[in-house]
Amino acid sequence: MEFINQTYFALRGPQGAPQSAPETIARLADRLSPSTLLADRRAAVLSLKGLSRDHRADVGKFTLSGLIDVLLNDAEIDADIGKAVLETLNVLCEADDTASPHARELGFRHTDQVLKDEKVAHKLFALLADHSFYLRVSILQFLSTLLQNRRQVVQGYFLKAPVGPTSFVAVLEEKREIIRHEAIFVIQSLISQSPEIQKILAFEGAFERLFTIVTSEGGIEGGVVAHDALACIDGLLRYNQSNQSYMRNSPLPPILLSILGFPPALPHDQSPPQGFALQLWDVPQKRTNTAMAVGIVGLLARSGGGNMADPLAFAFSRCLIEIGLASNFPTSIKTQALRILPSNLSSFPFGQMMMTPYVPVPETNGEEWDRLEPASALDILVELTLHGEYNGILEGERRTKEVLELRAAALGVFQNFVQREEIAEAIVQGMASPPESAPATPLLDALTAAHTTPLRISTVTATHMACLLFSHLLRASTHAKTLARSIVPPSAFSARAGGSFFVPADVAVGGPAGDETVLGGGCIGDQPINQMSETDTLVPALCVFLLGVCYEFNREPGEITRSTIHSILTRLGVDMLVGRVIRLREDDRFKAIGPDTLVLTPPSAPSHLQAGPAAKPEVEEGEMWFDWAFVDFWKSNYYTVQKGLHADPNSLSSSPGMGETAMLVASLKDVIRNQAKEIDTLRAQLQELTAEAQKPDESEALRAEAARLAEEARAAEEKQREVEKEQEDLLVLLDELNSKRRRDKQRMREAAMEVSEDEGDDEEEEEEE
């Protein structure tokens, strides 16, 4: 009743005449003075709170400084006036995205006045120690608004506050869920893009409090609070190497694995419990929480440098691999798990680690699962890449974008694993020399699989994936390429037994070098380059590029020489070929590929060709055209190949300044070739001596000779690697010199300096084309 009377008298004018809003606000502003009674100030604040929504500009203009004084002087004494002034200030400073530009600008102006110095921010941090429910909630809501409007200013004041970190960490121990949730939300904004604040809160015990919240909320089975706590943990760790090291050296990482259901100390020879591999995923919030937890696991796995000798790094990596290859986790989370694995997985025992995959029983809606026989992680990884999730049982002949993303992620893991030459060579060796009566490897089987008519999408995609897998085996190893030439597909054995092998119809065997019939001379009409389609230009363009690569880089003597290919280029027309390559460069499917972008969404039909409004498909489909390794190679060599099409077959190189380098590279290749022959000879001698030394009547001299030859073979191999490395360094240096030369010429043109005719040839030709 007293409040009503005080408000009435404040709003009543002389002789009871009604007042306008500005007049009322001005009278209430006078009652905020410290000289008035606390009860009067409380009544004035409550009245201003009611007026602040409809009269923000006037309340801010006349009373903002008075409200700040009340906050600084009275909020600590009276929780009710503290709550009321905080709520009023929050209304004045709000600048929501949905508000009008004028309202947002007003909120920013009020925020700037509140934060003109550190007094208000420091007072708010100190008041967090108060245990009043409504006061704490109001402080956190006001801080959230200030952080949203001027985050960097608040962060700067926080770093200088005497009690800021302690107060925030203490609020995380609050048992009342509303306060705890508000505190987590404010901390997420407070630590954003501030490594210093992240470190301070970490060393104050924020990790421990946040993990306590996650476990008390039920882990990944919890609700929004568990998710926000996990998001806060992620914010403290991401881009902060110091916090990552602190976290890895704390007892908390095993808790993170336990949240996902993965035993932290699982022996290498045991599979995870079925409760981890097979879970229920009906609740969307569980999927969201799991994705956040998996992201943190990947962050810590990568921060350890991928050292598989570290038990923690191994446990993190194995958890992610088990999720991706041998679980019923949602497809999107499987993809996430495989993508965030460490970038150096060569030391992970994919070939020795046995896993137990599961597949859904058809027509059970995912409620029943069959457990398959254990298989090596490498076999499961290759099968996933080739045939998709659960061997394509659920997908059928569709190519859903989600599953293609998973297969692309598995392809990336395979590329990561075989980046060490020894591993790639061992796999190719197994394909080239399989054990007696052993079936073909899944990869070789997919590479040589016959295609029926009409084509099946599943088979075509498997062949595409097999080619990508095989290319990763060969890309970085000369020896693997040599081994690959000796691979004989199982279906070819019968052909060889008959005394012949498959030869394309347009290739004449045994023709003289330089004869136009050697490489398609008489069957030009049947090559894809000439079969141009207006609906799709990719295949002709790729054929031209392949032909250009053969012409530009084939400088070795042999049956098919540059002169041989030049006759084909002349017959087809160089200008036409260059046009084909340019069209590939402009194709959207080519331009969309990036280091992390392999799967694309098929383009929809033009609106004028659609019979009606396009219905959104139940499942989004995807398509794959190129991988980044090829696109990167294409971009690095596009100009060289394009210009090379115009070059004379007897020229050293189409690129300026490449002549001496080409000669050097050719010389190095000769050295490598000779060393390879020497190594093969030494290996053969070593095998002979080893066989002789194993006989009981042989002397120690043979064993010594075998040891000497083994040492020579190792030394020769090491020398060959050094030469190959030197060649790679020279090529990199050459590319840098060419790039610098082009930049210098561009600067000369911009400075209106004269550029010689030779210096300008490259760019002028490129512009004309």
Automatic annotation (TrEMBL):
Record domain Uso1/p115-like vesicle tethering protein C-terminal: where: 665-769
Domain Vesicle tethering protein Uso1/P115-like head: start-end pairs: 528-644
One Pfam family matching this protein: Uso1_p115_C
Keywords: Coiled coil, Golgi apparatus
Gene Ontology biological process: endoplasmic reticulum to Golgi vesicle-mediated transport; Golgi vesicle docking; intracellular protein transport; vesicle fusion with Golgi apparatus
Keyword match Transcription regulation: no
Organism superkingdom: Eukaryota
Localization (cell): Golgi apparatus
Region described as Disordered: 741-769
Gene Ontology CC: one annotated term: Golgi stack
Biased composition (Acidic residues): 755-769
Protein name: P115 like vesicle tethering protein
Keyword set includes Transcription: no
